[in-house]
Amino acid sequence: MPNEFAYLVLLSFPLFAVVLFRLLPLQRALIWTLLSGHLLMPSSMHIKIPMLPLIDRSLVPALSALVLCALLAPRQRVTSDLEAKLGRQVVFILLAMVLLTPFLTVLQNTEPLIDGRSYVPGLRLYDAFSMISSIVASMIPLWLGLRYLNTQEGHRALLEAFVISAVVYTFPALLEVRISPQLHNWIYGFFPHQFAQHIRDGGFRPVVFLNHGLMIGIYFCIGVISAAVLYREARRLGTRAWTWLVAAIWLGFALFLSKTLGALMLAVVFGGAVFLFSRRLQVALAVVVAAIVMFYPMLRGAGWIPVDAVYDFALSISEDRAASLKFRLDNEDALLAHANEKPLAGWGSWGRNQLYDPEDGRMISTTDGIWIIFIGMFGWIGYIGRFGLLTAPILFFALRQRQMGPSLITSGLIMVLAANLIDLLPNAGLVNYVWLIAGAIIGFVLWREPDDAADVAGSAGSMGRTRAAWLMPEERGTSQRRQKRSEQRGALR
After folding, report:
1. Both 406 and 465 in a single domain?
2. Are the beta carbons of 386 and 102 closer than 8 angstroms?
3. How would DSSP label each residue in 415-438?
4. Coil, helix or strand for 43?
5. Is residue 454 part of a domain?
6. What pLDDT score does 92 carry?
7. How far apart, in whole angstroms, are the C-alpha atoms of residue 122 and residue 104?
8. Tens digit of each residue's pLDDT (9 = 90 or more) over 11-45
9. Does residue 245 fall inside a structural domain?
10. Helix %, strand %, coil % for the chain, to 5?
């Protein structure tokens, strides 16, 4: 059970958010409010009020940031570009699919489920509104990113925050690697998960204040990728780059000691791609990932995902890891078959998407990947709506990347998003910062009016200033000399 301090932290966090917004610029205050909530607040606890979403570590930071941004942020212009308008229509359709699916889900699930000794009640209109309230709460970070982080400066601040916070988080994580996961229990009075799952290879997998050690692994992974992006961008601009390289190496070392194989592989693949690939190749890789994730249930059902090869690879590394993977794959196969019985709008809430033992009524299925949760609860409509919102930023940026200038910042943020999308297939880590990344990219591509030289080129008057800001130092010097000679010729005339 959580102690009094856990509830104090949960309920007093808005005051901490106010302090951040008083001390930092708005974009950085928004970012650090959400990341602080994710990294520091107690996990697996909440306060439930009927018809309202859970008051927990996700809602409190997001709602605090939303209120403060609404009070403090200036109005922004929205681009009138035709392609952007069409893209915004697609986003609105996807949002409508997410928000309206619960009504269809309820209409298809009014009957109770009775199987032996298991009984699951039918859904009512009340359940539709309850699900919608939770969906709206989960979408707040998407709106915050779209509205307030839709510039390259915002994207850079987000990448920097990922690196800095991950580096700081390595110290308590490495402490738990040594002494076992204890900090959450010491400070908040309880352990948020099963302790046995965090004993790995004769040591321990850290948890700190997250709900599972896997969440630390993916966070260190995106820290590695973000540091690689900032290193490449610093090299391109001719500024100090070695600090980001050191951060990437240190985070990779901490990730290795954290004993999270999947996140380590993602860091190697996507971090290596950032170091070695051009921006166009990075975006192409992200598009492939987006396509696979978008159609993953269909590919999985058709047997086109090489799960046997992945299992054999895991078996070559560790029998324990292979057994854990096999358990997940078997559960997903059974749950996918159950979901296909109601493919359009799913089974809804109250555990109707799960499987039960007819003899004793005990739940016998485990949902790990967020994809199987979404398609089981909300069917293909809900799945396409949610993963459409997560993959659309990648696809729209790929279509419009020629208009986005040579900066590597946003394409690097897309690589961070792509790594998170892969992680969502075996895990359920769809947390605030993932929606924030998606919103920040889609806002930059489809919403932001490029009104100054710091943004992408949007008008003839700003093209020259924008290009000058993006030039490498030697190119900038050449450009300045050409301009000086042109001025001298004009004076002679």
Report:
1. no
2. no
3. HHHHHHHHHTTTS----HHHHHHH
4. coil
5. no
6. 95
7. 13
8. 999 999 999 999 999 999 999 999 999 999 999 89
9. yes
10. 70, 5, 25
Residue 481 belongs to domain spanning: 460-492
Strands 203-204 and 199-200: antiparallel
One domain, residues 194 and 130:
yes
User: Residue 291: exposed, middle, or buried by beta-carbon count in 10 A (0-12, 13-18, 19+)?
Assistant: middle
For 232, other C-beta atoms within 10 Å of its C-beta total: 23
Q: 208 in the Ramachandran plot: left (φ > 0), alpha (ψ -120 to 50) or beta?
A: left
pLDDT of residue 215: 94
Q: What are the residues whose beta carbons fall under 8 Å from the beta carbon of 316, sequence distance 6 or more?
A: none
Question: Which has the closest alpha carbon to 286: 430, 419, 148?
Answer: 419
- Mean pLDDT taken over the chain: 87
Domain count along the chain? 2
Within-domain flag for 78: yes
Same domain for 273 and 419? Answer: yes
Instruction: Kindly state the helix (H) or strand (E) to which residue 306 belongs, with its residue range.
Output: none
pLDDT at 324 over 60: yes
Which range among 307-321, 419-433, 447-461, 471-485 has the greatest average pLDDT?
419-433
Model confidence over 326-336: pLDDT tens digits? 888 888 889 99
Question: 327 lies in a domain?
Answer: yes
Backbone angles phi, psi at 55, to 5 degrees: -85, 100
Sign of the C-alpha dihedral computed for residues 395, 398, 404 and 409 taken in this order:
positive
In this prediction, residue 449 has a pLDDT band, given cuts at 50, 70 and 90, of: low
Above 60 in pLDDT, residue 458? no
Q: Are 266 and 426 in contact (CB under 8 A)?
A: no
Whether 273 has a pLDDT exceeding 70, the answer reads yes
| Two tokens, residue 119 | 């009984």
pLDDT at 474 over 50: no
